[in-house]
Automatic annotation (TrEMBL):
EC annotation from Swiss-Prot or TrEMBL: 4.1.1.33
Family to which this protein belongs: Belongs to the diphosphomevalonate decarboxylase family.
InterPro entries found in the cross-reference section: GHMP_kinase_C_sf, Mev_decarb, Mev_diP_decarb, MVD-like_N, Mvd1_C, Ribosomal_Su5_D2-typ_SF, Ribsml_uS5_D2-typ_fold_subgr
Name of protein: diphosphomevalonate decarboxylase
Domain of life, source organism: Bacteria
Gene3D superfamilies: 3.30.230.10, GHMP kinase, C-terminal domain
Domain Mvd1 C-terminal: 178-296
Amino acid sequence: MKATVRAHPNIALVKYWGKRDDALILPHQSSLSLTLAPIHVTTTVEFGAQADTVELHGHAAKGSERDRVLRLLDAVRVQAGRDLGPAKVVSRGDFPMAAGLASSAAGFAALAVAGRAAAGLPQDTRASSILARRGSGSACRSVQGGFCEWQRGERADGEDSYALQRFDAGHWADLRMVVAILDRGEKEVKSRDGMKNTVETSPYYPAWVKDAEAEVPRARELIARKDLEALGELCERNAWRMHSTSLAADPPLCYLNSSTLGLIQHLREQRKKGVPVWFTLDAGPNPVLLTDAAHEVAAEALARACGAVDVVRCVPGGDATLLSEHLF
């Protein structure tokens, strides 16, 4: 009735941006990401507690944050087909929550795998991915390591919308992702609200869906042959096009700031000098730099020279893993 899991966050190389079903968190298009190590979230779940309690990163969860966790555990109870009693959840991350790396992806991946294990359900990657998606869309891509593709799916119940591992963490071991934290502040518009407004009001959105879906197989091919330059170019144009949909929304939504643009321009200048470094950018101001092991230190130096208040250096990460030691 108790289990602990460690899971890593991921960064989308081809972005997820927009839901066709808000309740089930079903995307309009497929996406592809890289799981990132060594940063992680560790989550312990125990059923049979005296009351439902949720602690996230040292604080008692409240409101919608708490509700999302408990709804996922309700789904576990349904899958178990028996009364498991109240649950106690404790979850802790080891990386800055404002890093631009969705802690919810690692958190809900860990919660899904730990919840199923605590309920006595067998290990099932597909079932865990679908369950994690119900908590946070991108979490379905953190159940496994390496490069994972979240398939859009077609079914209304979402049973065919989950992540598949396309390449494991060892496939491209010298790939590096360097997170440039330019701004630690909270976003004025949360991602879920920004994507909803974009879907509903941006005239560019239908073109984005078609283009992003087509980028997924292109990205798979480039990853297969480890083509850093071509993958970097794909990541940049996909990020620009995602942000363009938001800029064209009503009201317009801009997640970038002057430091973001300054760093992006600096990367272009450095590539002209032979430094292989590109960026991707989720819904926030903090770019994630794509490079190789030989230029990881140079990428960090570039980020700091452009005003990064902190830098997180990442390598390809592995699967969500059950641990023998618990948080309580």
